[in-house]
Amino acid sequence: MSENTNRKIVIIGLGSGGLYVAKSAMSTSKNVEVTIIEKRSYDMFSPCSLPFAIEGVVDDFEKLKFSVPGHLKRMKKLTSHEALKIDPKAKTVTVKNLETEKTFEINYDSLVLALGSKPIILPIPGANELLGNGVFVVSTIENSIELKEHAKNSKSAVLVGGGGIGLEIAVALKNLGLDLVITKRTPPVLPKTLDPDMGQIIEDHLNELGFRILFGKGIDRINGNDWVESVEIAGETIPTDLVVMAVGVEPNVELAKNAGIELSNKGIKVSERLETSIPDIYAIGDCIDSYNLINKEHFPSHLATSAYLQGIIAGANATGAEEIYEGTLGTFVSKIGKLEIAATGFNTEMAKSNGYDVVTSRIKHWIKPEYMPGSTELSVKLIADKETGKLLGGQAVGEQGAAWRINIIALAIREGIAVTDLGKTELAYSPPVSEMYDVLSMAIEFAARKVKRTSEKVLK
Ligand SMILES: Cc1cc2nc3c(=O)[nH]c(=O)nc-3n(C[C@H](O)[C@H](O)[C@H](O)COP(=O)(O)OP(=O)(O)OC[C@H]3O[C@@H](n4cnc5c(N)ncnc54)[C@H](O)[C@@H]3O)c2cc1C
Fold first, then answer.
1. Are strands 242-245 and 135-136 parallel, antiparallel or unpaired?
2. In angstroms, what is the span from residue 68 Cα to ligand 1's centroid?
3. Is the pTM of this model over 0.90?
4. pLDDT of 233-286, one tens digit each?
5. Given the CA of residue 17, which atom of ligand 1 is nearest to it?
6. Which of 11, 19, 39 to mutate to test the pocket of ligand 1 (most atoms within 8 A of CB)?
7. Ligand 1 in contact with 115 (CB < 6 A)?
């Protein structure tokens, strides 16, 4: 590339991450030409809102669609185009126009893969055979509309999977009037995120809402000829009209694999600059093997928030910058029934398996003075390194106020703040909004006391 020509940046995938690659590249340098290749026929949509459109909280799926923001108009956008092949030597991408069926090549100086992921279909008899005929996944507007249409004429459903997205979909279907069984092979709820005692609060709530919970009992088979008729779970045959698979996602890596880019079994391998094994090709979002911020070890983070932050870094680097991606904390929030559930960093088991000796503190308290209308209780759990007091993770579950407290913990982890210091932070207080001695402060103080006790013992 000569100094007088614009740098050609090609992005494959206009999703949560791809959009921010484009924004970042264009704000980092004026001398770039950005082209986005996207196989969908419309600009963008919010996958995170799909459960709420199924439920009807958002009354029209069309509202989830949005256009690429106006200031990005100078970006060339090829919707209804699929990237078929990357030639890293020639630095070209072969693209197919899905409307005309014509293929052509685009040159790049930097290429960013923002390919996303696809839902996993469990390898059990009946699952693939009945996909679309009673077995559904929720990943696009189109498959969500299809599920909703069938749900309107159904009486019962089985939701397979106990992660945040799965439970959001389960609540949506329940609120449409269906009887719901939720099944997952491992017993605790959200095991990669919450400790079992925090997960139990959610399980209790799901029981209150009238779900039949079969955790620790995986689904073995889906029966039916033209349409789903029943499922088999731990020897029991359960009649059902619908089955929804929400057991996680697998990264889209075919394009990268065929280009000779190095992969792990978790996705595309990237450096701290989010560059792949081939120079000038970057990758971000659900398609990469991500690492955590605390110790840079592998950490699954199939979240829009991670894709967006990675997009900012990769977009800048694609212009020639040297930005480093610090890693993810998997900071997340979900609304399941009445409960707001948020978490960040390691849960206790993860912290231990990463070699940390930990202290934990758990407090349940009112988020505003109990006498204030609308006050509800929130459970907060913190995980800190016993030796340094540094925070490693946090979890919060309650009707309100989980997310903002967990966002503070995410910042504290990133800054390496110890629980013994964090308590000195002044938090805003007014009775209609909060408590003077907040439940988060209580959990911090409790953890700090445990850390101090440990260090005093060591000094003795
Ligand atoms: C139901 C649901 C609820 C969710 N809720 C949340 C939430 O509350 N919070 C949160 O943080 N995350 C949530 N997520 C996860 C979040 O949506 C993803 O982590 C995020 O979208 C990943 O961004 P991405 O850019 O990596 O991939 P995507 O947003 O999936 O974008 C990838 C894009 O690449 C395109 N593409 C792929 N291959 C090609 C090709 N060869 N040629 C052209 N185009 C191609 C695809 O069409 C797609 O548009 C949810 C996901 C789902 C499905």
1. parallel
2. 15
3. yes
4. 999 999 999 999 999 999 999 999 999 999 999 999 999 999 999 999 999 999
5. 25
6. 39
7. yes
